Amino acid sequence: MHANRTVTGHGPQGLPQVAFLLLFPGFFFYHSALGLGYIGAFAGGYFTPAALVLVLPLLFAYAGQLRRSGGPGPGELAFFGFILYMGAMWVVEVAAGANGTITRSHLLFLLDAVVVFIIFRLLDVRAVSLQREALVCLLLMSAIVFTFAQDGMFYLGNLGLARDPEAVATYQGFSRSYLFVYLVVSVRLQSRTARLALYLLAGATLYVNGARSEFVAMLGSVPLIELYRARQRARALGLLCAVALLVKLTLMYGTQYLPENRTLELLDLSQSSSATLRHQLTVQALETIANHPLQGSYASYEPGSYAHNILSAWVDLGLFGFLALVALLLWPLQRLLVQCFLRRDMGQDVELPLCLCCTTVLLLLGSHHYHDMLIAATLGSYELYNSRYRADSNRSSQFSTSAV
């Protein structure tokens, strides 16, 4: 069912691999050094400056890939069409005098989204060098979280060591980097024992990090990976249900043995001030949509006071933009689920786009703004898988024809 192909990671693959490591583990290590006072904020928030350095080389590499493959696929055209639509909305709203803080963040997101899409469109997670380096980074990231956690919570801003404390990333930034690296590593581990160890490590790390959304996303990836790999899926499903019940019982009756932090609020969101605020922001978004159902109301909220779910796209981009984003995500989601779990004709390397797509949809429904780099990573990874799937199908058809 699974072909084990070894890829070295040299040649054209080297750039997206280096870019991935610079952006995601690099962000984590930069802000760790910043929070511990080893460096000052010489690169600002890091991610966007790094994306600016990488964007031109990645565009050249992507253009070369398109020449070799005969041009962009429908999904790629749809993604860049959506980016152009967002850019056009940005131009119109800037001209109309929209809030400068919000429009600046939207412009930076467009850059970040293009860079992340190209990285995952070109990134070969089968590369041995990538898997080795990503695993080392993941272990180092976990070690940093456990070493510098205080009172069961990892937040370097509280240590008082940073030279520029206002520049230190929040737990969301650290958890985003960790989740990306975890997904790239977890989908390629062949040993069930190694995967179990990774699940335990990642779950504990994200728990201590206090990132509830990424913690839930990581847990949600486990059944996807294990069901995909299982030879007897009914048996695997029963085992996963038993494990889920055990986890639930542990959380219900064993919380006194866990370090207390905000992740435990998942057990009772009614007591969570963050969940209450997000509910209020969702209600405000629904009111805005009711008053402006077609065109939305771009940047009609205070900076940071956006709906933490996919309704944020409707508010900023109107009904058309919202439906376009839903279509961009639902098309690969339904195809991946059908091919993986019903038809079993998924071809190679489907696990990363499957996990990214399900994770993205889950987080957009519950906690993330539509300016989420998971969207770009999902669509880039899916287009890479789709191009390989088409190539494998064409080779199979040519072989069958020649055999006849």
From TrEMBL:
The keyword Secreted does not apply. Keywords: Ligase, Membrane, Transmembrane, Transmembrane helix. It comes from the Bacteria. This is O-antigen ligase family protein. The chain crosses the membrane at residues 20-40, 46-65, 77-98, 104-123, 135-156, 168-185, 236-254, 310-331. GO terms for molecular function: ligase activity. It comes from Telluria antibiotica.
